[in-house]
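New to this. Please check this record:
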Amino acid sequence: MLTSADVTITNSLKVPVSSEQMESLLQLQQEIMAKIAINNEHQRILDDLCRAAEAMLPNSVASIMLFDKKKEVLLVRAAPNMPAGAVEALNGLVPEQEAGSCGTAVFRDTAQFVCDTKNDSRWAASAFQEFIKDFGVHACWSMPIRNNEQFPIGSFALSSMERRQPHAFHQKLLETCAGIVAIVLKREEEEKELWWMAHYDDLTRLPNRTLFNLRLEHAIEKAKRAERKIAVLFIDLDNFKDINDTLGHKAGDLALQEVADRICSCIREEDTFSRMGGDEFILMVEEVDDPLEASHVAGKILQELELPFVLNGHKCRLSASIGISIYPDDGLKSDCLLQNADTAMFEAKNRGRNRFFYYEPALTQLVTERVEIENELRQAIKQDQFIVHYQPQFDCQSLRLVGAEVLVRWLHPTKGMIPPNDFIPVAENIGVIEELGRVIMEKACAQCVLWWNDGLPDFTLSLNVSVKQLQKGCAKKVEELASKLKFPINRLEMEVTESLIMARGGRAICELEAMKELGVSIAMDDFGTGHSSLAQLKHLPISKLKIDRSFVRDIPDDENDVVIVKTIIAMAKTLGLRVVAEGVETEEQKALLVNEGCDDLQGYLLGRPVDADAFKLFLEAQ
């Protein structure tokens, strides 16, 4: 049943459109269509359309709302003269039976002419009444925008700052504008599709060679400014032709799609992975600090491809040969980097396939050695190839034994004794440092318990800990291991290097604080090399500073080092921290340190690192 308001609107819409008004509509249409024809600045065209409509209805604001990607809510696509707050309030509008003018127009798929928003049921909801109050919208006419299938995809609206009745001209204006918006959106969609076809591979939906080159050139500009490296990995499948020949091209297509999916699972979202054509792929990894990082990515890809492929019910295997080039080391231009990565890929094939090769042979050799030591390190942990050495620490005044630092050595079956600097960074990099740390702690603590049960002198056992070990729950694991071994936890000390703790902070410091609460003492190793300040130190859960050996080596001859050592000792005393000097090798060094108030000494002058048997003899002598 029609209300009096509906009758009034119906009558007002019967007011005929004048020839002058029709001329203005035709002119608007021609101007906008001309813009569509000569450029693809779709957003600017939609904004211009809104402004042109506003000019034909003074004291109004035009807006275009479209469905979001999920086709659930409406979002403002264009409204150049609408206040930002109003746009924000409209975004997320859900089309319903009575959802303002725009939501209702889309839901009912018919034009909605609201002449008095304050007293219209379609605007009765509190959110709409609030909108009226905030932005002074007293009338709002909205026309649905339809796609090619004539389904509503949004609305074109004119919001008036005064109550007013629409005429046939206004209805025609809304229809014209809604139709133009549909044309613009269709053109935009077509251009997106054309752009996609020009820049993406249809089979794998990966970027193609054209887009890859564009991104690589852009990445080179960024890397040049930031002085960073880029890794380019050229990936070619081994014996892929056999799959096409035996299972058919359809199976080959399936294999290429699965290869693309598997490699995508190995890389970061910000990396660019492209299909170059045939069975060739290429990957760009930006913001590389160490060229060796590319070897880990290549290794993950080769490992992922080792899993069998099931193609049309047939199980088969694929591998790849990967060539790696690095910007700027192997080239400054995109074509040079691609060519060198391609060259390296062929070298990988020549060397037996299913492997990667760097364009720079020396770097490939370095990677080969690193991979070899990684594999051997994992085996070494399983086969218990690590030996614990102990270096004593002495009280400065009494020269009584007060502690022992645990130093790990790798007794390799063919290479002999390997020092920690050669394998600890590798253990951190491949994620086995926590397991290695547990093995060393268990060995050392168990040995100390045996010594102390035999009545040998007690001391503080000091273990070096990597910040990468200080993950959530680390303190709890230390407590559990000490309890299991019946090791008195108040005799345990953890050493963390100054530079690492200052760089990482956060979680590492939380775990150190938890250990301190358990009774574990915390020592900051290599102090003086990490540039920490007095203000920073007082907030760290440490009880001891270890003066780095680089400052002890040249005292008392080097006056600068003498000043540094004196300053460190004074700083530690101010904070109530104990001070240990490392690398003490002469009586002169010892005398100066004792005179300046250093608490403990460690170095070859008083005791070298020795294995468990030799340290037991030392304890018995004590």
